[in-house]
Every structure is written in C-alpha cells, then in structure tokens.
Amino acid sequence: MIIEHKDDLWEVLKTQHVKPGKGGAFNQVEMKSVNNGTKLNERFRSSDSVEKASLQEQKFHFLYEDGDDYYFINQKSFEQTNIKKKIIGEKGKFLKENLEVIINFYNENPLSVNLPNQIQCEIDITDVALKKQTVSSSYKPAVLDNGL
Where does the signal peptide begin and end (predicted)? Predict the structure, then answer.
C-alpha cells in the first residue's frame, strides 16, 4: 500500500497494532520512501488521518532495455513510456520481450511495475545429477536464460 505522509509517498512495509498498558492504542508502521528509499517508523493514533495515494494502473508490454531505462508500450493507445532501472530493481531480470505488466502511475509518473504471477523461462545450464538420488525426489541447481 502506498500512502501520502509528510509531503512524500511512502510504501507501507509492516504494521503492528500496539495497546500499551498505559495510554491509548496506536499503530506502529514501518514505511519506505518511494522517492529516496529512506525508512521511517511512525506511530499513528486513531485520531490521526492518513491518505492512501491514488494510483492509476495501466497494462503495458515490455519492449526493450537501453542504457538506464526499460521501455514499455500500451497496446491500446500505442503510447510508449520508459522507466528507470532503479525503479524496477531486481524485477528487471524477469522482463522478456512482449511480457505484459501492470504499471502504477501517480500524477502521470510511473511509480512501480507489477509482474505477472507466472513467467516462462528456459534452463540454460544444469549440473549433473548425483548418483543414488533417484529413489526420492531430488533437486539440482540450474541457471535460467535470464541469468538467475
């Protein structure tokens, strides 16, 4: 969940309802700034108001990466948008050409990318199976075509 707090956008990481023996109950919230990545622990009482950020979700297809950006296209309007690699982070390793993703926008600026629940990858390299592991289910390390 993304909230507006102290003139910034914050991603809520963890919440905990606390009822101390003395005084009123409150929510302890751990948040991370969307813009600069700093973390903040904040207490919200029942009298405090918190605004949930209004995000617009749009479906896009991944086109390509170039330098510090990933490029996407909206299949309905053919609008192209680019997103910095630092916004997408580790999710960028799972992007394949023509993969459909959902991009969240805040004030027409891309904020985050949601990948589909399942992605098909091919296995490039595996180690040989060890002897005597055929009796029970066994696993062996593998490297996928995206390097993971």
Answer: none
